Amino acid sequence: MDTVPRELMILVAGPYRSGTGDDPRKLEANVQAMNEVALKLFRAGHLPVTGEALALPLLETAGSTRPEDAAFQEIFHPVAERLLSRCDAVLRIGGPSEGADRMVAQARAQGKAVYTGLTDVPAAR
Description:
Blueprint: E1 9-13, H1 24-43, E2 47-49, H2 51-62, H3 70-86, E3 89-92, H4 98-109, E4 113-115
Parallel strand pairs: 1-2, 1-3, 3-4
């Protein structure tokens, strides 16, 4: 078994819409929570990514005006699913989230590591 520390590309998966009522301030708070965890992973030597970081600019460019419109359906979850296929692992954060739970299930199905806390993530350096 390889015990040498190495950099992992880790998808940070947490709630985006869950429990927000689609309130823009609550949506932004959820993105911020994922970004804060991503920063900690980066500082620990890993390459963290979020589906939101890629999907939200695309949604704006596509003219999405609200969650669940046609552009949202076309882009939001498919971006995370494509991104997951390139990642080594998933770090699941936050409370209930159907989308984040789907990422965890897909990661497990693909044989990827799933972490439930920052302390579970192996050292990169």
